[in-house]
């Protein structure tokens, strides 16, 4: 590795305070199947219960909650799940996170 590559790698680590968690997060993304498509904008069953692709990254938490509620009410959702995003967070988990962080 040359000096420039070494410096570049060090700078990338310095910018990412969560770099030690990246391997585990990447494994979750891989296992959930969200690394092959829309990543952070992926929904359960690749949009089957949302009417197609959704731009989750631009939505508010209130909008996400409403979307997850609609997903759970979708008649074809035999999974009874509202999993969204790269890490497939479900509504109950997101609500608990919001409550604990007072969001």
N→C terminal distance: 44 Å
Classification by helices and strands: mainly alpha
Number of helices: 4
Major sheet, described briefly? none
Explain what this protein looks like in three dimensions.
Helix 3 (61-73) packs antiparallel against helix 4. The chain has one domain. It has 4 helices and no strands. Helices cover 46% and strands 0% of the residues. The termini are far apart. The chain is mostly helical.
How are the secondary structure elements laid out?
Blueprint: H1 3-15, H2 22-32, H3 61-73, H4 91-100
Helix pairs in contact: 3-4
Task: Report a brief summary of the structure.
It is built from 4 helices and no strands. The protein is mainly α. The chain has one domain (3-100).
Descriptive key words:
103 residues, mainly alpha, 4 helices, 46% helix, globular
């Amino acid at each position: 590795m040359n000096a420039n590559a070494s410096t570049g790698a060090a700078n990338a680590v310095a910018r990412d305070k969560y770099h030690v968690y990246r391997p585990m997060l990447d494994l979750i993304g891989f296992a959930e199947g969200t690394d092959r498509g829309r990543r952070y904008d992926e929904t359960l069953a690749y949009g089957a219960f949302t009417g197609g692709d959704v731009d989750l990254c631009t939505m508010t938490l209130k909008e996400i909650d409403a979307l997850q509620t609609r997903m759970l009410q979708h008649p074809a959702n035999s999974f009874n799940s509202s999993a969204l995003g790269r890490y497939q967070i479900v509504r109950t988990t997101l609500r608990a996170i919001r409550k604990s962080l007072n969001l």
